[in-house]
Each structure stands twice: as structure tokens, then as C-alpha cells.
Amino acid sequence: MTINLLDLDAAGLNDYFARMGEKPLRAKQVLRWLHRFGEGDFERMTDVAKSLRAKLAADASVTPPQLLRDSAAEDGTRKFLFDVGNGNAIETVFIPEADRGTLCVSTQAGCALDCAFCSTGKQGFNRNLTAAEIIGQLWQANHALGRDPHGERIISNVVLMGMGEPLANYENVLRALRLMLDDNAYGLSRRRVTLSTSGIVPAMDRLREDCPVALAVSLHAPNDALRDRLVPINRKYPLAELMAACRRYLETAPRDFVTFEYVMLDGVNDHDGDARELLRLVRDVPCKFNLIPFNPFPQSGFRRSGAEKIRRFSEILMTAGIVTTTRKTRGDDIDAACGQLAGQVQDRTSRTTRTTRTTHALKSIQVAEIAP
Ligand code: SAH
Ligand code: SF4
Fold first, then answer.
1. 356 Cα to the center of ligand 1, angstroms
2. pLDDT at 123
3. Best mutation site among 292, 299, 305, 327 for ligand 1, i.e. most ligand atoms within 8 A of its Cβ?
4. 261 in active site
5. pLDDT higher at 312 or 357
6. Is 208 helix (H, G, I), strand (E, B) or coil?
7. Following DSSP, what letter does each residue of 314-367 receive, concatenated?
8. Which of 76, 105, 213, 313 is most buried as measured by Cβ atoms within 10 A of its Cβ?
9. How would you label 230-253 residue by residue, b for 16+ Cβ within 10 Å and e otherwise?
10. Cα–Cα distance between 31 and 58 in angstroms, integer?
11. What pLDDT does 342 receive?
12. Ligand 1 centroid vs 265 CA: distance in angstroms?
């Protein structure tokens, strides 16, 4: 069976080359070709011996997920739709800003955690993405976006905030993170790679040891009663444990604060009293808040808080000295906003293609028909 080299981080490539009787230097050369230069054709890896190139061509492949669609929004946001086989599609979003270019990467097809306000959650869980499928989104997006006039890459930041819960796919996410940080691969600084989690406490502790990157935590509620309803994983890892895990994480984190994400749901979690309760909750955790106006999807049962409500909520936090930003909704016209990523995922149990979201950007694509 051929091995997909995009599944391997530097240590994995070293092992692979060692098994072939090759020196670590070869692994490093190939790592650079694959990720620093984005090369997928062994023949073009010109400083690799011809005999080794032939061996690689026979034994290995470079297989990123297949790009099905690339759509651009009016504000410059780009959305990439990838086929990950068996009727599953995932999405990756590129968000250009004046001082950076951020790629929002998916880690699972669907998600098992079923947060009440999330379209991905409503689709159910399909499967974990492989390391090649996770890093492959960056690989493919780099190809699609090209380089800036100085020859630099356009993507300067990565956020693991697309479809899926990254800490529920720990091993594959870890390999992909290591490649993002590796100087011979993407060379991103730890501060420019942010993992967002709904709060899987034991995995936060592992990440803190294995590969601390910037951390965002999806809080969404100031007390257990409400969070149990909105983010069901809270029943397993309640707020007191989550806050303690945040404090532990900060001991090794590249940034000295955690970003709390807070989706603004009209009449549900957006009262002044909720903001004040939040202040008490996060008292001992150095943090910033990022308020996310809820992005609606059919049958969600929630409405977005009004602009004035969001402003007041932000003001209460800010007055108490917590830096609070409100996320601009980007890529609205291509349904690339937070919590809207869906694609069309085939429900394997019922063997029908569920269109949990029909969007103008996606509805012409029947992934299930294209997949082998
Ligand atoms: N599973 C991870 C990362 C992916 S979700 C997590 O939950 O943190 C990225 C962010 O978008 C999370 O904060 C999530 O709660 C939020 N989100 C999900 N659905 C949303 C929606 N419909 N509107 C706005 N934000 C949403
Ligand atoms: Fe999963 Fe995150 Fe959506 Fe919750 S918000 S269902 S954890 S992707």
C-alpha cells in the first residue's frame, strides 16, 4: 500500500526514510519540498537522488484532499470545498485582513458534540480527518492563493475553527500542528496558530504538554445550567474544571491569555446579568473575549442578538478591564461565516444525502455523486 507523505510530520518522515535505509537529511529535504515549496511531484525534487525519487514514486504518494470548489465573497473571503471521500465534504475559509491572512481549517467531517447553535453539530459526526486532510487544506490553499509580490506566502495565521472539534481528533491534529510550526514546513509561530475547543479538558492538558499553541475556548454561557444546554460537553467537563484547565494551559501557552468565544444568542445568553456573571466566572483566568454574532441557519431555533445588545454586553466586559472584540461577519454571501460550514454530508446510516444546509454557494454540488 502506498503511504501518503502528507500524513507524516518531521518525525514520521524520519522514521519512514530510516526504514528505507536513508539518512535523516533526505527526510528533511523531502519535508521542505512538500511543505515549504508545496511540491507534489517527486520528479521535480531535483536535489533528491534519482534512484530515491523512483523509490518514492513506487512506494509513496502526495495526496491532499481534492478541491471541489473555490468561491470568493465580495469582501475577499475565499471558501474552499474539499471532497474527503464517501460523500463527505469539508470546508476551509481564507480571511484576508490588512495585516494578516488567516486560514480557518476543519478537523473533522461533522462533529459529535452537538452544540445547540452549530450547523456542523446538527449534521452529526462522520469521521475524523487524517493529518493529510488537515494539513492538506493548508497545502491546497497555499497553491490556490499563490504568493504576495515579495514572494511571501499569503497565509500568515491558521485557526482550527472550521468544522469539527480539534481536540476530539487529537493525534491527527497534533501532527498537522507540528507541520504548521516546523521551520522546514510552514514555519508559523505558535502565536499565529490558534486552536479552538469546546472544552475537552483532558485533551487541553495533553496539548499543553505536547504542542502549546494559542488557545480559544468556546464558552457561550456564564453558568453550568445554561452551558449544559448550549454546549453539551459541559455536562462532562463543567465550568469549574474548564476554568482550571485554562489556567493550567496558560502556564505553557505562547500567549498570556485565553480567548473566550461567546456566540450572541438573542434572549438566551445576552442579558446584562450574563455579562456580569461572566466577569465572576473568569476572574482568575487572564483572557480576552470574542463575541460572535450568531449566524443563523435553517431550523436553528435561535436568533442573533441585536447590535445594541452586543454593544452593551461588550461594554460591561470592557469596563471591567477585559479586552473584548466583536467578530465581524465575513463571507456572508458565500456562507463562510462561523458555524455555517457544512458542505453536504452523506448520512452513512441512512445512506441518503442529507442536505442539512442548502446554500446558494453549495447547492449545485452533489458531493455524494462525485465521490468514488
Ligand atoms: N469545535 C470547535 C471549533 C469549531 S467552531 C469549537 O467549538 O470551539 C468555531 C466557533 O464558531 C466556536 O466558538 C463555535 O461555538 C462557533 N459557532 C458555531 N456555530 C455558530 C453559529 N451558528 N454562529 C456563530 N458562531 C458559531
Ligand atoms: Fe462541534 Fe464546535 Fe460545532 Fe460544538 S461548536 S458542534 S464542538 S464544531
1. 17
2. 86
3. 292
4. no
5. 312
6. helix
7. HHHHHHTT--EEE-----GGGT-STT-----EEETTTTEEE-S---TTTTT--H
8. 105
9. bbbbbeebbbeebbebbeebbeeb
10. 18
11. 54
12. 12
- Contact 121 CB / ligand 2 (< 6 Å): yes
List CB contacts of 343: < 8 A, sequence separation 6 or more: 81, 88, 89, 90, 91, 163, 362, 367
Closest by alpha carbon to 116, among 230, 269, 261? Answer: 230
Q: Ligand 2 within 6 A of 261 CB?
A: no
Regarding pTM above 0.85, the answer is yes
The Cα 314–Cα 325 span in angstroms is: 7
Q: Which ligand is nearest to the CA of 106?
A: 1
Q: Which domains does the chain have, with CATH numbers?
A: 3-61 (1.10.150.530), 66-370 (3.20.20.70)
Rounded to whole angstroms, the Cα distance separating 236 from 228 reads 9
Angle of CA points 191, 197, 199, to nearest 5° = 125
- Percent pLDDT > 90 in the chain is 83
Q: What is the number of the ligand 1 atom nearest to the C-alpha of 295? A: 23
Please report which confidence band the pLDDT of residue 223 belongs to, taking 50, 70 and 90 as the band edges: very high
